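@channel sequence for tomorrow's demo:
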Amino acid sequence: MHTTDYDLLIEQARAITAGEPDLIANLSNLSALVYEVLADVNWVGFYLTREPETLVLGPFQGKVACLRIPFGRGVCGTAAVTRETQRVVDVHQFEGHIACDSASNSEVVVPLVVNDEVVGVFDLDSPSIGRFSEADAEGLSRFGRFVEQLNWRSL
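structure tokens (generated this afternoon):
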């Protein structure tokens, strides 16, 4: 079982983004931070809403990823449409799962909402089935609330 101090993670995120107005620079460092801090993850990153109803790959850590995901497709698209964090114990049991990396077996996706618009999602994959607990989903959702406070106007 993995335990992560999400309060400390958010403090670290606040420290590395303080004073930097560029969103892409901040999202890049945040994906690297989470990739290094969380155990047993093989992909951490962001998909950004760049076209209506379409998520486009943003800053990430891990293997090559899917470039575009329509709202409503896969775990990321489901999070974008429902505006609710998706915690998937076994992605192979998730109807419509998009397999960008066949090594991924569990996933958490946090929708990012700014001014009542879905501006993107924060996506984490693990090679282990059941890697993410409810506590992880809650902590990562809180991390997402922090990300929403960044300068989204700089996109």
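heads up for whoever presents: The mean pLDDT is 94.
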